[in-house]
C-alpha cells in the first residue's frame, strides 16, 4: 500500500467484484468509495464495502492459526493446522460417514473459491452437504 494517495482495488466482501478506491494515509485506509469506472458497480457500494474496513488494522485480528489443546487455544503453524483439520475430517468421515460433514460456503469468496469448495465436498468428502449465503 502506498504511503498516501488513492489505491484502486476490488471489494473482498462478496463475489460480485465491485471496484473500490481506497483513500490511504500513512499506510492506513481512511475512507473507501466506489470506483465510477468499474463496470460492475459504477461507483456504488454496499454498506460493508464502504464502511467495514477497520478490521484490516485491528489489533486483535488473528494472524496465525489456533488449535485447542488441553482446553486452551494455542498458536500453531499453518502445516500443523492443516494436518489437524485433515485428521479431524478423516476421523469424522471414517466414524460417521461422509454425510456427517457439511460445509458452508462464503458469499465473500469468489465464484472460483466457492467452486473449489463444493468440488472438495463432493469429491474428497463424498457429500452434497454444502450451503452458503450466496442467494441474497
How are the SSEs ordered, and which strands pair?
Elements: E1 4-10, E2 19-25, E3 28-34, H1 47-51, E4 66-69, E5 72-75, H2 78-96, E6 103-105, H3 111-125, E7 130-132
Parallel strand pairs: 6-7
Antiparallel strand pairs: 1-2, 2-3, 4-5
Give descriptors for this structure:
136 residues; alpha+beta; N-terminal domain of TfIIb; three-stranded antiparallel β-sheet; two-stranded antiparallel sheet
| H-E order | EEEHEEHEHE
Distance between the termini: 32 Å
Which CATH C-level class of the largest domain is it? Mainly Beta
Structural class: alpha+beta
Shape descriptor: flat
CATH fold description of the largest domain: N-terminal domain of TfIIb
Low-pLDDT runs of 5+ residues are none
Widest sheet, order of strands? 1-2-3
Compute the average pLDDT.
90
Describe the protein's architecture and organization.
- With 136 residues, the protein is an alpha+beta fold.
- The protein is built from three helices and seven strands; from the N terminus they run βββαββαβαβ.
- The protein folds into three domains: 4-57, ADC-like domains (N-terminal domain of TfIIb, Single Sheet); 62-96, no CATH class; 98-136, no CATH class.
- The protein is 29% helix and 26% strand.
- Helix 3 (111-125) links the parallel strand 6 and strand 7.
